[in-house]
From TrEMBL:
An example molecular function term from Gene Ontology annotations: hydrolase activity
NCBIfam families on file: YchF/TatD family DNA exonuclease
SUPFAM superfamilies: Metallo-dependent hydrolases (SSF51556)
The species this protein was found in: Candidatus Cetobacterium colombiensis
Record Gene3D superfamilies: Metal-dependent hydrolases
Protein's recorded name: TatD family hydrolase
Keywords carried by this UniProt record: Hydrolase, Metal-binding
Amino acid sequence: MKLVDTHCHLDNEQFDTDRLEVIERIKEQLEFCVNIGYDLESSKKSLELAEKYDFIYAVIGVHPIDIAQYNEQTEKELETLGKNPKVLAIGEIGLDYHWMTEPKDVQQERFIKQLELAKRLNKPVVIHTRDAMEDTVNILKNHPEITGVIHCYPGSLETAKELIDRFYLGIGGTLTFKNAKKTVEVVKNIPLDRIVIETDCPYLTPEPFRGKRNEPIYVEYVAQKIAEIKEVSVEEVKEITTQNAKKLYGIV
């Protein structure tokens, strides 16, 4: 069984010099990967990649850091793009109170608009939340029909237990960091069938490559760490998390 990278950014400029080689490694070593948009332009690029390669899928949306650009025209364009079968979800959307490029009320309003877009398109969502977990959870509670994944899950075990009836937890390279005690606790205590593996490449590179550019095939190191924490085989982690990814994104 091959692994899946459920969250990557192959359109990022860090891949401009060797994107084809990175994509070839994905083809050889992974089941598939999911390229995530963060604004309208990157969403379009994500879909272009997905239409070019059968093992790449797209997610489209506007990240909370870029939410100033979200307006009626953006929403219309995203809704049109979202009807393409290679678009699996709406994301990455959510709240970011760390950078605070827009006030909380603006972020929340446009987060909700994108949740409603996902509902209209009957697609799951990819949630970004940073220093905003309480508000994120409260908004999601008000949209009980929405399912998806909490990307790079940053919360506590207690909050994870509240979310896993509807959401998968995205676990990436930060799990391998020495200061990842909270994430280790979550992985140890949450069922494997609620976890998906991601890279967020080119960011958050796992050990032993921390400090260098991340790429999708490095999900292998995340899988190894999950297996170590949960005291199961790497093969079991691959089998279950790949099936989880397919269920999350509706891939038959």
